[in-house]
Automatic annotation (TrEMBL):
NCBIfam families reported in the protein's UniProt record: spore_II_R
Coiled-coil stretches: 62-96
Keyword Signal: yes
Cleavable signal peptide: 1-27
Organism: Shouchella miscanthi
Protein name: Stage II sporulation protein R
Keywords noted in UniProt: Coiled coil, Signal
Amino acid sequence: MKAKAIIYLLISLFVGLMSWESQNAQAVSQFHQEVNEEEAIRLRILANSDSVSDQMLKRDIRDEINAEITKWVQEVKTFEEAVAIIESNMDEMEAIVARELSKYNKNQDYTVEFNEEVAFPTKLYGNLVYPAGAYQAVLVTLGEGEGENWWCVLFPPLCFLDMDNAEAKEVESESNEEDPEVETSFFIVDMFESVWDRLFG
């Protein structure tokens, strides 16, 4: 009888925990709102390299471009208006890059483009989720563009939230690279470990 009671207790506990985990996941998903990729304009700056001077140059260009574009789009209400304003000021952004390069005495090539095929990883701003994908964006490439890069959301203006935590290393993929190992996990084991950590961790 004791064994049956323990089994029933464990089953009840397991069912209750599954229900709790499900409700918790639903609450999280309801709190976060996924943004449509077609409703945002983003900024990505690719540094020439990871050297200190190249990274400092990237950050200064970031600050100058962000300050200008934020002023342009602050009162803009629609995505289409923001696109028109940015397109009409591309020369100004190129001038900013040229000016900062001159300050650093760097003779680097650079490009400043505005297109719809710039790849970004998933990013969370408060309860807004910007999913990974191709966005319309201002893309600044400095020199070889092989250093840590920086990105943010220009419209609606969210770059000010990201000044210290939007760095990412550009990773090149090679066709002859071996497939990564596939990591297998078991739902019940993962749930048990999660519950154990919550209760006794």
